[in-house]
Write a structure and sequence with these properties.
Structural class: mainly alpha
CATH class of one domain: Mainly Alpha
Strand content: under 5%
CATH architecture of one domain: Alpha Horseshoe
Helix content: over 70%
Radius of gyration: 21 Å
Oligomer: single chain
Length: 345
């Protein structure tokens, strides 16, 4: 049995690893840091519990703030929500620190993706207030964009644009280039929901070009996928397929289990448009299985499109064929689903 001093040393070492990893989680082109954290995950769990049990709430909060993105992307979103809630309420956690604001942003985004909009709003609101006090522009922008996300779920595209334009102005006036990512993405989403695909495409392309320049592959993957989705909606399957395949390849290489299922869905729509509804049903089922496994809801501009596409696929197949294709996809793990998706039929 390790003595308490050894446990403290181990917990502090893991805290340092998480702090070192965190900046690499947002834009790296590969899964090196994600994989390292995955290998240490059990030990990180023990460290988090040790900090809480020994009254070191500030350290528990820092660990939760550093790890929530890893946990979300590797299919541990429910655990991330629990960690953040415990750490934010822990005695000794600093009340108005940047670390607290980072944790609140994670809590807000994960609540949003768990369809808990009231909790998300409160987290984004407190995050923004602390970030404004601390003059931490990145989190001011992200929290403000969080309000845009919630407005999109309500279908209020006017409010989406208002919050997104406010966030974009702050980013361009006082932030770094990459801070424009979320506001541009949400302006595109608002245009997409309104049916203005040309404007949506312009925002997605602007964001894609910016993040190729910055080599931020997380956003590159997302916006490639969105441009591919718009090409599907416009009926341009030959343009859509390479965009979606590149997006999926990047997300899979990064180990991003949140982004990859979206591209499975849209490649399913491509297959349907190419006259292969059976393949489309298998891809949609594989994507749905991944969303179910991670416990993350689809974004508000994506969910209705998924349902619409799935309804078209169902109508194109008899019940037995659809059920068999669906069962095949639902059995797939992410490795199998990506291999299937990237293999030309």
């Amino acid at each position: 049995m390790p003595v308490e001093g050894e446990e403290a040393d181990r917990a502090e070492r893991l805290l340092a690893i998480a702090a070192e990893a965190e900046p690499h989680l947002w834009g790296s082109a590969d899964a090196t840091w994600m994989d390292r954290l995955e290998k240490e995950h059990e030990a990180l769990r023990a460290a988090f519990s040790w900090f809480l049990d020994h009254g070191r709430g500030a350290d528990a909060l820092e660990l939760a703030a550093d790890l929530w993105l890893f946990q979300e992307q590797r299919g541990h979103a429910e655990e991330a929500r629990a960690w953040l809630a415990k750490a934010l309420a822990a005695p000794g956690a600093e009340p108005r620190s940047i670390t607290r604001a980072r944790a609140l942003y994670g809590a807000g985004l994960l609540s949003f993706r768990n369809l808990d909009d009231d909790t998300a709003w409160g987290a984004f609101e407190e995050c923004r207030a602390i970030a404004q006090e601390q003059d931490y522009i990145r989190l001011v922008v992200r929290a403000t964009t969080g309000f845009a996300r919630l407005s999109l779920r309500r279908g209020d595209t006017r409010e989406v644009r208002r919050w997104s334009e406010e966030a974009l102005a702050i980013a361009r006036d006082r932030g770094e280039k990459e801070d424009a990512a979320s506001p541009l993405h949400m302006l595109a989403a608002a245009a997409r929901v309104e049916g203005d695909l040309s404007q949506a495409k312009a925002f997605y392309r602007e964001n894609l070009a910016l993040h190729r320049e910055l080599q931020r592959m997380d956003t590159v993957s997302v916006e490639l996928g969105n441009l591919g989705a718009l090409a599907v909606l416009e009926g341009n399957l030959s343009e859509a397929e390479p965009l979606l395949r590149e997006s999926l390849e990047i997300a899979y290489k990064r180990g991003d289990r949140y982004v990859a299922p979206y591209e499975l869905i849209w490649l399913g729509r491509v297959a349907f448009g190419q006259g292969n509804p059976t393949r489309a049903a298998t891809l949609c089922a594989a994507a749905k299985a991944q969303f179910d496994a991670t416990g993350l809801a689809m974004d508000p501009d994506e969910g209705p499109e998924y349902e619409k596409g799935l309804a078209d696929i169902r109508r194109a197949l008899d019940d037995a064929t659809f059920a068999a294709a669906w069962a095949e996809g639902h059995r797939m793990n992410l490795d199998d689903a990506v291999t299937f998706a990237l293999r030309h039929p």
